[in-house]
Amino acid sequence: MAGDLNEAVKKEETSLKVKIIGKSHVKPNKKIGTKHCQLVTFDLPYLAFYYNQKLLLYGDNGGEMKFPETVEKLKDGLETVLEPFHQLAGRLGKDEDGIFRVEYDDDMEGVEVAEAIADDVAIADLVAEEGTATLKELIPYNGILNLEGLQKPLLAVQITKLKDGVAMGCAFNHAVLDGTATWHFMNSWSEICRGAHDVSVPPFLERTKARNTRVKLDISLPSEPAAANGDPKAATAAAKPLKEKVFKFSEAAIDKIKSKVNSTNPPSDGSNPFSTFQSLSVHIWRHVTQARNLKPEDITVFTVFADCRKRVDPPMPESYFGNLIQAIFTGTAAGLLLMNPAEFGAGVIQKAIVSHDAAAIDQRNKEWESAPKIFEFKDAGMNCVAVGSSPRFKVYEVDFGWGKPESVRSGCNNRFDGMMYLYQGKSGEKSIDVEISLEEEAMARLEKDEEFFMEI
């Protein structure tokens, strides 16, 4: 085991020789004044998560992209987009009653922007990288808790010059926004950089329209910040090191999986056919459970962070800026999941998702408000498979004027055994990329699973 830990630490210490050449701060290009926005029940549980990290890689169009001009273009666009999205240029704070909120005024520093160089690193090298150890140098705020937004910017960006392109690493405070809001912002920023004078869809900033309960939390920064999963120090503390891998499912593979799961169509119990998400999820859940060598009686949990914008009553607009997600948990015995056809597990997932309606959301909120609990990774459940992000997010439409990204990845923050991120595939259509973290032994078995790969 000691050898495994040492090897994990060596992997984490792999260096890309990234050199930071400058840091600055970007603020909205117009005076906004003083603004406060209360964090609500949907936001507060994530204060002890880490900043949500995204990495986008762009080719340099055969050398036509000039780094200094690229940086200035991005900063100029950021100044403009931060006017409607000014909360990202603020900080976390508390009101006179100790209620957490986003605070903004024109004297704050704004968004942190770092410029860096990694001239020996090529796009192809990074696209081929399946782990996160070498990617972490391209993304800011590794191991930074969302609660540290009391003192740090709520958005940090690192723009790195590569051998043949640019890497854009972003760290968003997850207590302030979810994935839908993150990609709304990124697409709006790129829209401005392509020449628009204003964002086509302004953010909806009235969080209290979704929930107006004031909850005071007794939480403060730890004296010694905890190491994030993926931080070099974390490997020495983990009993079993994690391994990340990206599985790319083509449209044909997705169709094959969906057809197999829906082979008894229509479902015998009268429920709806299984969606693409439900079909792919049960495929991964079953094969990960098998790779873990669980006993038949062991419970395995499936967790999805579901968008509640259309589920709450009244519904909120897609442009709602903040967190409007809730974790939906469901589970079953490993033996039942594996011995039954795939539609059994798909049905377990479907039932949990469909039943999470406005009444269920309201009940969950009331329970949390009566006994607030800050989420931790272990809360995802036993032997879990947990889904973040969504293939619905238009990540390959984040075009700043030099084409769509070559690759979109998550950083090393907020990873644990069984965590996976779903992204649309670069080829478009219905292809889906799956980033997943598993204990090394389980990942090794998954990689040898012919039935799993036969579908890809």
TrEMBL record:
InterPro entries: CAT-like_dom_sf, Sec_Metabolite_Acyltrans. Keywords: Transferase. It comes from the Eukaryota. Coiled coil: none annotated. PANTHER family: BAHD ACYLTRANSFERASE DCR (PTHR31896:SF76), FAMILY REGULATORY PROTEIN, PUTATIVE (AFU_ORTHOLOGUE AFUA_3G14730)-RELATED (PTHR31896). This is BAHD acyltransferase DCR.
